[in-house]
Structure to design on (594 residues):
């Protein structure tokens, strides 16, 4: 490099020289002649001279031509500039130090979890560089933006988390006799991130899961599901439980290669791009048929706002209703939610359409490692990373769902659904009879450590690995074939998979679920309550007659007179009785003591 000679070439010293390094590679190359240094243009003395001659001549000229007052002002200006430079350098050091410490607190696997393109290299006790490895594809995660100081520092945990926490049932409340939340021990977000597993959970037996797609579908059996599900036959249903190293199963979106692209449950290309950009963790919900009121998450850390995707799926009816009351920005966001409007819905039943994002999130977000589903009527009030640590990482499980707060038996759940008019009674009976022929029995303690056969399926926390993806695919196929009441089919799919591989869905208490989500009423019930309140007649307020105002003297004098009369009467009776008593005691003669 020729420009290096003009800067002065070091021929010896502790860092070596260019000639020495070239000598290691072969014959030393002749060094170029040194360029003659030109006189500085800013020097007022022309040549400048060696050392500080130019600077001395500059100060001499300033001292000669400037007055004393101008010299003092110049010195004061120089002092101010030096002070500002010193203050600025101290601020830079204060900002840079926490940033380096924060970056050192986050390990490489957390960085790669948030954005696979980020890697960090360490040397000694300091951070050398943070770079992007490889070329980012068009669907790379661009959601995580901003400075690296947004990463919370990792904290070394000396003791197991929440080791002194003891579970206690919900507190007694006479006003609330129904299900209530119970205390749950969560870690701070930075401690939860420190416990994130470095590698995905191992999937037992199943390592590769593929999804069936067909262009021309023909209905071969009655009651075999829908066109969206691919009409799987009973034989194909049985084969899907024969778990192998590599499998191909029905899992919705059968009519195309890419979900949501001319497959039913379609979305715009811009929405698909955003969905495939999402990596790491996604929180998803849906409202169809304008059935619920959108709830905004609360108590979400800034780190989660930057690194977690929040997606809300709507149909056109719900979108039209929301636009009348809420403004959607140019990024298609309402609060934290990124809104996706779904077209060409596969079912006429809004609740059944909601099962698509609920159970098939791994197909909608193929690059996501963790997913958290919450029903549209729920409000999330805890940070997603806290929930992942509490219900997955701490227990070393890959799928978590809350159990029903009251019912544990599928047969009881079916009867409750019929009593509540949740679905056609004949269809529920048909599904239960089919499961009974396959061996469904009542829940008993013989199933322990499984604690329930009935989930409260409004929240699902999962890691997207092949075995959990298979479970939700087969669970969706049951919902597609039978009724949309997924609580009835949950235990059948779980037990079939559990009988073949060492895996099961973890079920936590419903009161724990109620601690991190707040349940609201459905829109219909809310409107009914509001209408009932409006229809009630307003309470009748009886008008009180104004009291007659009397002067102070007129009000006080009668009271005094009556009190005087009353007290006078009492004294006369007492005094007369005393005189009578004394007269009797002295034979009719009163004795007066002086």
């Amino acid at each position: 490099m020729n420009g290096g000679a003009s800067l002065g070439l070091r021929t010896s010293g502790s860092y070596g020289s260019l000639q020495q390094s070239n000598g290691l590679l072969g014959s030393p190359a002749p060094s170029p002649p040194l360029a003659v240094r030109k006189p500085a243009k800013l020097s007022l003395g022309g040549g400048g001279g060696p050392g500080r001659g130019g600077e001395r001549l500059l100060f001499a000229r300033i001292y000669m031509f400037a007055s004393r007052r101008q010299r003092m002002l110049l010195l004061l200006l120089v002092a101010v500039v030096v002070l500002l430079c010193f203050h600025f350098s101290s601020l830079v050091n204060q900002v840079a130090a926490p940033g380096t410490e924060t970056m050192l607190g986050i390990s490489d696997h957390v960085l790669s979890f948030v954005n696979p393109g980020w890697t960090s290299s360490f040397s000694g006790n300091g951070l050398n560089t943070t770079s992007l490895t490889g070329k980012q594809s068009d669907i790379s995660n661009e959601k995580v933006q901003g400075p690296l100081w947004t990463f919370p520092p990792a904290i070394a945990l000396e003791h197991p988390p929440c080791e002194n926490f003891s579970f206690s049932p919900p507190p007694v409340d006479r006003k609330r006799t129904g299900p209530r939340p119970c205390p749950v021990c969560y870690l701070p977000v930075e401690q939860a991130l420190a416990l994130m597993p470095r590698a995905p959970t191992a999937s037992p037996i199943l390592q590769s899961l593929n999804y069936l797609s067909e262009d021309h579908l023909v209905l071969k059996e009655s009651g075999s599901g829908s066109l969206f599900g691919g009409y799987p036959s009973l034989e194909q249903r049985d084969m899907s439980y024969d778990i192998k190293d590599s499998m191909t199963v029905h899992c919705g979106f059968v009519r195309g290669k890419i979900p949501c692209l001319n497959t039913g449950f379609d979305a715009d290309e811009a929405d698909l791009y955003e969905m495939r950009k999402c990596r790491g963790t996604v929180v998803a919900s849906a409202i169809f048929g304008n059935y619920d009121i959108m709830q905004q998450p609360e108590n979400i850390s800034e780190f989660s706002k930057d690194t977690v995707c929040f997606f809300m799926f709507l149909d056109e009816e719900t979108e039209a209703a929301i636009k009348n009351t809420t403004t959607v920005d140019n990024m298609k966001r309402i609060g934290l939610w990124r809104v996706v409007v779904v077209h060409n819905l596969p079912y006429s039943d809004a609740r059944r359409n909601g099962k698509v994002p609920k159970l098939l999130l791994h197909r909608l977000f193929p690059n996501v490692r963790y997913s958290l589903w919450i029903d549209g009527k729920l409000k999330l009030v805890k940070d997603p990373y806290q929930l992942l640590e509490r219900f997955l990482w701490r227990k070393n499980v890959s799928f978590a769902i809350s159990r029903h707060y009251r019912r544990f038996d599928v047969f009881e759940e079916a009867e409750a659904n019929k009593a509540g008019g949740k679905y056609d009674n004949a269809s529920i009976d048909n599904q239960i009879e089919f499961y009974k022929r396959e061996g469904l029995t009542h829940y008993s303690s013989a199933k322990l450590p499984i604690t329930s056969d009935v989930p409260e399926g409004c929240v699902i926390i999962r890691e997207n690995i092949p075995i959990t993806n298979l479970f939700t695919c087969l669970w969706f196929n049951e919902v597609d074939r039978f009724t949309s009441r997924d609580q009835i089919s949950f235990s059948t799919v779980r037990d079939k998979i559990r009988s073949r591989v060492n895996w099961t869905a973890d079920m936590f208490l419903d009161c724990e679920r109620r601690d991190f989500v707040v349940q609201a009423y459905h829109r219909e019930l809310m409107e009914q309550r509001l209408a009932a309140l409006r229809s009630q007649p307003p309470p009748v307020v009886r008008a009180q007659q104004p009291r007659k105002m009397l002067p102070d003297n007129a009000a006080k004098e009668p009271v005094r007179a009556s009190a005087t009369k009353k007290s006078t009467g009492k004294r006369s009776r007492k005094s007369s009785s005393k005189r009578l008593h004394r007269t009797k005691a002295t034979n009719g003669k009163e004795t007066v003591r002086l």
Q: What stands out?
A: The chain has 20 helices and 14 strands. The longest strand covers residues 455-463. The first helix runs from residue 3 to 6. The radius of gyration is 41 Å.
